[in-house]
Structures are given as C-alpha cells and as structure tokens.
Specification:
Elements: H1 9-12, H2 16-29, E1 35-42, E2 53-56, E3 63-65, E4 68-76, E5 83-100, E6 115-121, E7 139-141, E8 156-158, E9 167-174, E10 177-185, E11 194-199, E12 204-209, E13 214-217
Length: about 220
C-alpha cells in the first residue's frame, strides 16, 4: 500500500518515535486502501503536559466514522497516574473505483468500454462503490447512471437466468424416480431462487431455479 502522510505531530510536540509507531499502526489497519493521508485534529483532553508520555493502546479498538479515525492511546505523566484517551485523525482514504464514461440506461449489461478506473477519496462517498470488474459479472443496471458517476452496488441487479415466458423443463423427485414436464416461466428467475411456473395442464407450481433450462418443483 502506498501511503501519503500529512501529519502535524510537531504542532503537538509529539516524539518522532510515536509518529513511526502511528504510521505502522495506520499501515496495518488501513491496508485495504490503495493510499491514504491524515491530519491529527485533536489529542486527548487529559494530556496535562506535552512532555507526558503517550503510547498507542493496542488493547482497545479504534473507531472509523465519516472520514475520522479515533485511535486509543495511553497517557503516562511523569508524575501521576496513567490515563486513557483518544487521538482524532481526519482521513482521506483512497481506493480505485469504477466511474462511468457515458450516460448508461437502465437494464444494460456493462462492457469494459463503459467505465474507467479512478482513484477516489472514498470517505466522501455516500454509496457502496464498485471496486472490481468481477462484481459486474452477470449483472445489469437497475437505474439510469449519469456520465462520470461512481458505480455503486445498489445501481445493479442480477441478470435473471430465466425470463418470463421462457419454456423450460421442470422435474420432481419421488424416491428414486424423477418425473419431468415442460413448463413456462411466470416470472424472471435467478439461480437457486423460487419462481412460479405453468404446466401444459394450466397448473401453477413453485420451482427452484437450477439453470437457464431446468427447475426443480418444490410445491
């Protein structure tokens, strides 16, 4: 991971060794991001003197929320009892996301020519972005996407393997015997999901989708 460090530790009089420990801590906990930058906003209120010792408290969990990271620390005054607190960082967290090149209509299965990969500060995003092309496999847009828009997961839906009106084979198992029949799909079907199918005798069954051509009658 490439990290961009914007630290203002000198403003608080913190030691160089603490900065090294903090950098290592962030590299460990922010490894899912391509790069990051940070700025220290506040130190614990209970630091009475800049000469007080301050160490990262790895026994407690950090908090990450809306671009801010709250890192647990232990403060040990030269004279007095040690106390706990948090350092607050303002973060920019970068990931490679997919961005649409042109306007995309609803119901479209995307090709690689429809988007580009761009590094974005994901702390500013209010949606769950799409990070990999693999996510788009067997999916189509369920809403219209604007030009230059970051692709979000909630803008896509699975492409049905069976469409309304498709003629498929349904089968039912009775012990070691398997009985098959021709049916028509009454709704779009997704793999391992239940759909309604209509037999040639105009009887409705519920069936589990196994493939684009075959379903298992369950009711």
């Amino acid at each position: 991971m490439v990290s961009i460090i914007i630290a203002i530790l000198f403003m608080f009089g913190l030691s160089e060794s603490f900065q090294d420990n903090l950098d290592a801590y962030l590299n460990n906990h922010l490894s899912e991001y391509s790069k990051y930058s940070y700025e220290i906003i506040t130190l614990p209120n209970n630091i009475s003197n800049l000469n007080d010792g301050i160490d990262l408290d790895k026994s407690r969990e950090y908090k990450l929320n809306n671009g801010y990271m709250y890192i647990p620390v232990h403060i040990q005054p030269k004279n007095g009892k040690g106390t706990n607190g948090y350092i607050t960082l303002k973060l920019k967290l970068y990931k490679e996301v997919l961005v649409s090149i042109n306007e995309i209509e609803r119901g479209i299965e995307l090709a690689e020519s429809d988007f580009i990969k761009v590094y974005k500060d994901v702390t500013q995003l209010r949606v769950e972005a799409v990070y990999t092309t693999e996510y788009l496999s067997d999916k189509r847009t369920k809403v219209k996407i604007s030009k230059g828009q970051v692709l979000s997961k909630n803008a896509f839906e699975q492409i049905p393997v069976i469409r309304i009106g498709d003629k498929i084979t349904a089968y039912i198992k009775k012990g070691t015997v398997e009985i098959s029949m021709d049916v028509k799909a009454k709704q779009d079907g997704y793999r391992n999901k239940i759909i309604r199918v209509l037999s040639d005798e105009n009887r409705i069954y519920k069936a589990k989708v196994e493939s684009s051509k075959k379903v298992l009658i369950v009711e």
